[in-house]
């Protein structure tokens, strides 16, 4: 477990924030009240184990913010607590590349700290692309974002960025300058919007131009936000990045909840139908061979009854992984419910279906599933329909009959639909 170091001489505040952090985050909290004790602790601790630091700007033995400098030297992400912010103090603390500062008297303070710490946990999985022809701008933005632990990719050519976005769908935010030789920010925004909706990827436009229309135009072409380079403030930049990436992540979570099985991460039954209906009608029209298989774990009730539901869940998750990793990207695997899975594969003939499902059966039988030291093996029965029927539900119904035969005739076996007369 990662650690948060709190340096504050108020015992009340330390107790309050420790309670809030341990309630809502997977962090262990260490608290000290002085600069000297923080320094002594940092000398003996493994810095890698400290995920973030929360420090009071004014400590009894270091009243001028010396603690901020100490933590910056150790490169620990730091949130500064302060009760009397002035322009001078603000400039001083930002020099040390802090994560953020928080005004202590504010009622909202603990909530804001928790949100910021939560973001520091999530941000390493968020990829942000930066488009700017100025290497200095790219470096400044990338450094700022790395303090908040975001992953960044830098592009000085917008055309290269567009190609990258076509190949990789994991970028959550693009921050783009306006003036670039190969393509301006408006055109880049328009091009990105042809590839991604606002829910899938956010865009922030940026410009140093003194043009009042720039912000409105960026937004009209599909950007979500705009930052003026001249009045650039780190705290504003971070908030805009956080708001825009959070929106995309929240949408992604909603989509995942609607389409994926919560336990195994496979497609759920509803999404299987959404994906496969289209594939199947095309395969049927073009007489492309398909295999529709139902896979059911044998005597799964016994696993639950003997070892408990948690072990049962681990077994389901492992089998799901095996099924998903056995097929091509173009095939669809879903959990249909309970211990039953459905697989739909395009372009596989009778001979290859037999080879594929026999191999899958053996792979599952030979897998030892380790659940906290407990070693379990299971077998599956598989019913496969490779005969064409234009209705998808009928394809599945026929596979289900084969599965029933596999169960009835001994389990741990594959039953494939017999050849249809006249269709050899
Ligand atoms: N752990 C766990 N168990 C589940 C889940 N969904 C369904 N089950 C259990 O799966 C078991 C299915 O049992 P049965 O339908 O009798 O089938 P079986 O024991 O596999 O027997 P055969 O299919 O005939 O080989 C039941 O005990 C369900 O409670 C789940 O999400 N997690």
From TrEMBL:
The record, for InterPro entries, names: CheY-like_superfamily, Diguanylate_Cyclase, GGDEF_dom, Nucleotide_cyclase, Rev_trsase/Diguanyl_cyclase, Sig_transdc_resp-reg_receiver
Q: Which cofactor does it need?
A: Mg(2+)
Q: Which Gene3D superfamilies match?
A: 3.30.70.270, 3.40.50.2300
**What's the Enzyme Commission number for this chain?**
2.7.7.65
Q: Which reaction does it catalyse?
A: 2 GTP = 3',3'-c-di-GMP + 2 diphosphate
Q: Which GO terms describe its cellular component?
A: plasma membrane
Single Gene Ontology BP annotation = phosphorelay signal transduction system
User: GO: which molecular function terms?
Assistant: diguanylate cyclase activity
What protein name applies here?
A: diguanylate cyclase
């Amino acid at each position: 477990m990662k650690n948060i170091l709190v340096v504050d001489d108020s015992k009340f505040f330390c107790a309050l924030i420790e309670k809030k952090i341990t309630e809502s985050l997977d962090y262990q909290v260490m608290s000290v009240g002085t600069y000297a004790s923080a320094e002594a602790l940092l000398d003996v601790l493994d810095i890698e184990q400290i995920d973030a630091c929360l420090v009071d700007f004014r400590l009894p033995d270091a009243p001028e913010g010396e603690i901020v400098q100490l933590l910056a030297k150790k490169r620990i992400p730091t949130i500064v607590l302060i009760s009397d912010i002035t322009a001078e103090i603000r400039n001083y603390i930002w020099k040390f590349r802090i994560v953020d500062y928080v005004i202590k008297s504010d009622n909202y303070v603990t909530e804001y700290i928790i949100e910021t710490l939560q973001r520091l946990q999530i941000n390493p999985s968020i990829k942000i692309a930066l488009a700017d022809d100025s290497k200095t701008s790219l470096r400044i933005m990338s450094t700022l974002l790395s303090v908040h632990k975001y992953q960044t990719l830098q592009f000085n050519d917008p055309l290269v960025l567009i190609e990258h976005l076509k190949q990789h769908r994991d970028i959550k935010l693009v921050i783009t300058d306006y003036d670039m030789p190969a393509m301006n920010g408006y055109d880049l925004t328009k091009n990105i919007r042809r590839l991604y909706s606002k829910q899938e990827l956010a865009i922030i436009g940026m410009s140093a131009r003194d043009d009042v229309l720039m912000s409105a135009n960026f937004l009209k072409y599909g950007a979500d936000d705009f930052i003026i380079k001249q009045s650039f403030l780190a705290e504003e930049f971070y908030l805009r990045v956080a708001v825009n990436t959070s929106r995309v992540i929240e949408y992604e979570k909603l989509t995942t909840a609607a389409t994926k099985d919560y336990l195994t991460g496979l497609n759920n039954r509803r999404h299987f139908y959404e994906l496969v209906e289209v594939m199947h009608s095309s395969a049927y029209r073009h007489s492309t061979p398909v295999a529709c298989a139902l896979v059911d774990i044998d005597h799964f009730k016994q696993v639950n009854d003997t070892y408990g539901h948690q072990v049962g869940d681990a077994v389901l998750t492992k089998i799901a992984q095996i099924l998903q990793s056995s097929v091509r990207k173009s095939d669809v695997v879903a959990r249909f419910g309970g211990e039953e899975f459905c697989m739909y594969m395009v372009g596989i003939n009778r001979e290859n279906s037999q080879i594929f499902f026999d191999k899958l059966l053996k792979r599952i039988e030979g897998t030892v599933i380790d659940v906290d030291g407990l070693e379990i093996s299971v077998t599956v029965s598989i019913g496969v329909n490779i005969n064409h029927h234009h209705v998808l539900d009928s394809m599945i119904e026929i596979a289900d009959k084969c599965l029933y035969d596999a169960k009835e005739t001994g389990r741990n076996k594959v039953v494939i639909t017999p050849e249809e007369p006249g269709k050899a």
